[in-house]
Amino acid sequence: MYPLCTAQEMxxxxxxxxxEIGIPSxxxxxxxxxxxxxxxxxxxxxxxxxAHVVVICGGxxxxxxxxxxxxxxxxxxxxxxxxxxxDPQNLxxxxxxxxxxxxxxxxxxxxxxxxxxxxxLESVFQNADVIVDALxxxxxxxxxxxxxxxxxxxxxxxxxLIVAVDIPSGIDATTGHVLGTxxxxxxxxTLGALKWGIVLSHGSQLAGEVDICDIGIxxxxxxxxxxxxxxxxxxxxxxxxPDRPEDAHKGTFGHVLVLAGSQGHTGAAALAGAAALRSxxxxxxxxxxxxxxxxxxxxxxxxxxxxxxxxxxxxxALDLEALAPYLSRATSLVIGxxxxxxxxxxxxxxxxxxxxxxxxxxxxxxxRLLENGHEALIGRTGATILxxxxxxxxxxxxITTEEVQQDRRxxxxxxxxxxxxxxxxxxxGTITASPAGELRWNPTGGPAMATAGSGxxxxxxxxxxxxxxxxxxxxxxxxAYIHGRAGDVASETRGDAGIIASDIAHALPTxxxxxxxxxxxxxxxxxxx
Length: 529
What we know:
Elements: E1 2-5, H1 7-21, H2 25-43, E2 52-57, H3 61-76, E3 79-84, H4 93-104, E4 109-111, H5 115-119, H6 122-126, E5 130-134, H7 146-157, E6 161-165, E7 187-191, E8 194-195, H8 196-199, H9 201-206, E9 209-213, H10 219-224, E10 229-231, H11 234-240, E11 255-259, H12 266-278, E12 283-288, H13 290-299, E13 304-307, H14 320-329, E14 332-335, H15 343-355, E15 360-362, H16 365-369, E16 384-386, H17 390-397, H18 401-406, H19 408-419, E17 422-425, E18 431-433, E19 439-441, H20 454-467, H21 472-494, H22 501-514
Helix pairs in contact: 2-3, 3-4, 11-21, 12-13, 12-20, 12-22, 20-21, 20-22, 21-22
């Protein structure tokens, strides 16, 4: 697992390494510049000594990194031109030192002081093979405009390889928002740790390929200043999963009760149930009204069924008395996919939430039933996991979907704390938040998963891990990771277009197997015909 930092958290790591550990800041700058240089050489097509490189330096430490890059590339034999968009007499101390070194080594440096001078540099940008953006780093807190805006425009119009130092200039390192205008990079080499601004909002679209480079910040600094955000890797998910002993039986791996489906939405119940089974649960019971259950016999023969609605249709309330014996045998609950809407259903859901101490996953219609009322979850004795997509999150908060997408990290943490629940905010780069403020960003999955029913599969997957004894926060982020990996497995053989939710569900065992690294995943997880 590796850290994912806000601008402030990254500054704390730097400060600790420099002030508490005693690593000179100039050493960190040298390490950064050399690591980025290696990334440029690896990414450039052709011999680097034949490349014409333009390095754009600002007056802060990001610019200092740029001077190191320029000097090292110059030593490699590349044709290098530095454009300093600052007063040479007003640079940060470490940047001043590297500016001096570059000039001593006869690396060409031109100080650009006006927008008119920027216009005169059009041919320089157009003829560059590589543009290095070392204009602004993670400390930017104002809109880019004037001469800096003109430079960004020239960078973006260049046909060369555009490499951003730490973060594309103009992207807020914490939110990913564009501050006026921003560089569109082909490659971003981020320093020390991944930044939230590179995975959120516009930052995720403008960063291009992202490399994380080690600049020498010791692990001790990270331990003393732990970031709230982390990115899981295969081994982290594998370690979170329960063992599967040789003498196990179906009861060993838990029993998921899925309350889902209604008229016209039988498939949602089938997908959630199938995902729970394919994620390792030993037993699954689907609770619904009689017409829905009748449609499940052929689509999901492995699941048991339970008639637990008062009447039929999407407005039918849950029959709490009929549910009681099924609740006593279950080890987790998944509620919501295709469940329906209605006042009686809402009241029965809230009563159920308050009466049972089973760990619960609330998805889809269950979240809509709780719109502007997720405070009903506070004080539950059992764990609760919410899995909203941005529209459902907007309903929980009484805001617009656009507002949710602007502040995904903050709002996921906010709802988790307010509702005393784990929140899995779905979408590109799913974010999982715990009530204690821990955050996980999910690196798996892609556009293939933008298909109806994908969220039902995720709910079943997380509910399955809960049933198997995985803790709620771990079940949530590990479930999101496996779900995304299943989408990746399916798209490897079928492409991004045309994947359906059942393809993702079928690929779940293969996705889980791939975490062990014992063998490469083959196919999409479906049985051979």
